[in-house]
Amino acid sequence: MRTLAANEIQKEYVFALAGNPNSGKTTLFNELTGSHYQVGNWAGVTVERKEGICKYAYHNHITHFDTHEHETEHKHDEPHNHIRIVDLPGIYSLSPNSAEEVITRDYILKEKPDLILNIVDATNLERNLYLSTQLAEMGTPMVIALNMMDALEENGFSIDVEKLEKEMGIRIIFIFVFKGRGVEDLVTECLKIASKKELPVCPITYGKDIENAISQIEQEEELNRLCSVKLIEHDARLKSDIKSPNTHLILEKISKEIPDIETYIAQRRYTFIKSVSKKSVSIIGENKQAARTRKLDSVFVHPILAIPLFILIMFLIFQITFGPIGTYLSDLVDNLFNVKFASLVESGLTAVGVGAFAKGLVVDGIIAGVGGVITFFPQIMLLFLFLSFLEDSGYMARTAFIMDKFFMKLGLSGKSFVPMIMGFGCSVPAIMSVRTLENERDRKLTLLLIPFMSCGAKMPVYAIFTAALFPNNAGIVTFSLYLIGVLLGIISCLIFSKMVLKGDIPPFVLELPPYRMPTLKSTFHHMWDKAKDFAIRAGTVLLAASVIIWLLQNLSPTMHMVSDSQDSIIGIIGQFIAPIFNPCGFGNWQAAVSLISGFAAKEAVVSTMTILYDAVNTSGLTSVLQNTFTPLSAYSFLVFVLLYVPCVAAVSSLKTELNSRKLTIFSICYQIGIAWIMSMLVFQIGSLFV
Amino acid sequence: MLTLNDLKKNETGIITGIALEGLMKRRLIDMGVTTGAAVTMLRTAPLGDPIEFYILDYNLSLRKKEAGKIYIRKVGEDVGSK
C-alpha cells in the first residue's frame, strides 16, 4: 500500500474518464475541460489521447465555475485544486481485446489515477454496468456519472439511484451532460472520494472455489482483483508475466473444474447486474426512444431505400460543401487573405523598402502558399459540421451497417466507408476522420486507400485538360478517371490486406446507437475539434513547404534569383527527371515541374503550368496544351495526376494518423509507382491504336 | 440446432451456446452475447449481410458468419421492447 503524503490533499488530482462508446463521454470531457485540452496519441498506437485541466475549481466543499475573473483570487486560496482529466478510449470491457482496452487497463494499472470517473448511459444500463463491475475491481477510487437520466422517461423506465448505488457499492451521481447539468456536483463528489481514497465495494462473488483462487493469486502475484480474475480467464497478456509457479497450479485446477471459464465469469457479472437492475429499475411506460429509432431505421435502413437515401445525403453534403455555398465562403476567404491581406502586406513591405527577394518570399511564397490551403478552410469546416452531425445523430453507424457486405470482401469493414467518401472532397479531413474507426488494422488499411479517391483539388487539372483536349467528352473522361481511382483502390486494398497488413480480419461487432438529436454546442465542439488540427497544420508544415517550394522555384543552384524558372533549382530538377516521363508521353520539363509543385497542392499543377508555359491566362494555357499534348498523352498525364502521391498536407496527416514512418514512405512510393506504371501503360497501349 | 441466422424478423431466441473461439467470442461475451441472453432479430442489411439484433436494451449488428455459430432456442414472437 502507498503511504499518503501529508500535503496530498493539495496536489494535482488525476481523474481517468472511462466508459462505453456512445455514452456521452466526449461531451462530458468537453464539459469538464472547456477548451483547455491537448490531443496526442497513446504511445505506439494510433489511438487518440486527450488530456485537459478541469475548469471546475474546488473550494470549501462547493464547486465554482472557474472563470478568468476568479483566477487571480484563487492564487491566494489554499484549497484550490487542479484536476487533470485523462480521456480514456471508449470501450465495452477490460478484456483486453483491442488496443483501446489494453490502453485503458494499462493506464489505470501503471499510472494510478486518483479516481476513475466512469460515465454510464442510463438508457443502456446493463451493458454499461458490465464495464463498471470490472473498473470497480481495479482497486482505485471510483465514481459513476449516470448520464441521460433525462431520456429515461422517454425510454419508459425509471431508476432508483439510491438503490442502484447501494446495490453496486459505487458512488453514483446523475448528470445531464448534453445540457451541462449536474457536472459541478459530480466534480465535488469526485474530489471528496479521491481525497478520502474511498474504494468501491465489490459485491460480485464468483463462487467459493474461484474466490479462493482469486485471493491466492492476489497474494502470489501482487495483482489487484480484476487482474486476478482476468488471469483465471486465461488473459494471455497477464499469463506471460506470472511470477509464482503456484499460480500455474491454481489456474490449472480451475480450468479443469470449469472448462469455459470466460463465459462463466461473464455470466456471473451479468447475473449480478440483472439482479441489481431488477431492484432499482422500474418500468413506467412505453419505450418511445426505441420505437422512434425503429421508425427511423425502417426508412434509413430500408431494404431498397437505404442506399439511394445514403447517396442522396452524401450528394447534398457535397453539393453544399463543394457547390455554391462552400465556394462562396471559400471565395470570401480567398479574397480576404489572398487579395486584401496580400496586397496590404505587399504595400507595407514596399513602404518599408524591403527588397524584391524578401517581398517575393513573403507574398508569393508564404501568403500564396498558405493562402491556397486556407481557402479550403471554410469547406473543411462545413464538411466536418455535417459529418459531426451524422456521427452524433447515430446515422454514421448505419452507413457502416449498410455497406459492410461490400467492404467485407475487401478485408475491411463498413466503418471504412465514410472516410473513403470524404476522400473525394479532401484527403486531409478524410484521413483525419479515420480516427473514428475502432480497429487499428482497419484504420491503416483505410488510410492507405484514401489517396486513391480523387480529391477535389484535382478537379481544376481535369477541367483545364478536358476543356483543351476532350471538349466533346469532358464528362466521360473525368468520370473514367474517378472510376480508375476507385478500381485501383479496390485492387490495391486486396493486395495490402493480403501482403502488407496481414493478420486476422478483426471481428465485426457494431453497436447501432439510438438516434439522437445532437445539440448545436456539441456538434460545433466536435467540428472544431477536427478542424483545429487542419488550422495548426496550415500554420506549420504548409508554411514551411510553401517557403521551400518558392525558394526552389526562384533560386538558381548558385543561390541567385532567377528571372526564368527554367534556370531555377526546380527547373533543373524538372529537366533532369523529365526523361522519366518519356514512356508516359509527357517527357517535357514543364510537365515534370508542375507535377513537383502539385506536391504542395494539386491545383498548383495548373498554376505552375500557366507560369512555365508563359500562358497569360486560362485560354492561353488551353492553346499551349493543345500544341504540347495529344489526347493520349493528356489522358496519360491525367492518370498520373490522379494516382501519384497526395499533397504535402495529406501526407503529413497520413504520417500522423498512420503513426509509422515506414508505412508512410511505403504509401508515397506505392502511389508514385502505380501512377507511373498506369500512365505508361495508358500511353504505350494507347499508342498501338492511335 | 437453430442459430441466430434462423430467426426471422421480430422473432426472439434465447442463446444456448456459442461455437466461436478467441477474440470474437471474448468480444461477443463483453457485449452481452452470452448463454441465456434473449436476442430479437430486427432486420437484415440491404445487401443481405450483416444482421441487426436487439439484445440487452441496445441494437447490435453481427455478420451472418458469426451469427451462424451462436445457437439458440426460439421463444415466440416479441417486438423486443422492454
Essential attributes:
heterodimer, A: alpha/beta, Rossmann fold, Helix Hairpins, 7-stranded mixed sheet, two-stranded antiparallel sheet, 32 helices, disordered N terminus, B: 82 residues, alpha+beta, 16% helix, globular, disordered C terminus
* Beta-strand content bin of chain B: 35-45%
At the fold tier of CATH, the topology name of the domain at 12-196 in chain A is Rossmann fold
Q: Return the average pLDDT of chain B rounded to an integer.
A: 87
Give the strand tally of chain B: 5
What is the highest CATH level, the class of chain B?
Mainly Beta
* Spatial extent as radius of gyration of chain B: 11 Å
Task: Describe, in plain words, how this protein is organized in 3D.
- The complex is a heterodimer of chains A (690) and B (82).
- The radius of gyration of chain A is 29 Å and the shape is elongated.
- By secondary structure, chain A is α/β, with parallel strands linked by helices.
- In chain A, 61% of the residues lie in helices and 8% in strands.
- Chain A is built from 32 helices and twelve strands.
- In chain A, the strands form three sheets. Chain A has a seven-stranded mixed sheet, sandwiched between helices. Chain A has a two-stranded antiparallel ribbon with strand order 4-5.
- Among the domains of chain A are: 12-196, 3-Layer(aba) Sandwich (Rossmann fold), CATH 3.40.50; 208-283, Helix Hairpins, CATH 1.10.287.
- Chain B is α+β, with helices and mostly antiparallel strands and 82 residues long.
- Chain B has a single domain, classed as Roll (SH3 type barrels), CATH 2.30.30.90.
- Chain B has two helices and five strands, in the order βαβββαβ.
- Chain B has helices at 22-30, 64-67, and strands at 11-18, 38-44, 51-55, 58-62, 70-77.
- Chain B has a five-stranded antiparallel sheet with strand order 4-3-2-1-5.
- In chain B, strand 2 (38-44) and strand 3 (51-55) form a beta hairpin.
- The longest helix of chain B has 9 residues, at 22-30.
- Chain B is globular.
- Chain B starts with 10 loop residues before the first strand and ends in a 5-residue tail after the last strand.
- The model of chain B is unreliable at 78-82 (pLDDT under 50).
- Chain A binds chain B through residues 92-93, 95, 97, 123-127, 130, 155-157, 262-263, 266-267, 270, 283, 286-287, 290-291, 293-294, 297, 301-304, 306-307, 401-406, 408, 504, 506-514, and chain B through 18, 23-32, 34-37, 42-50, 52, 56-63, 66, 80-82.
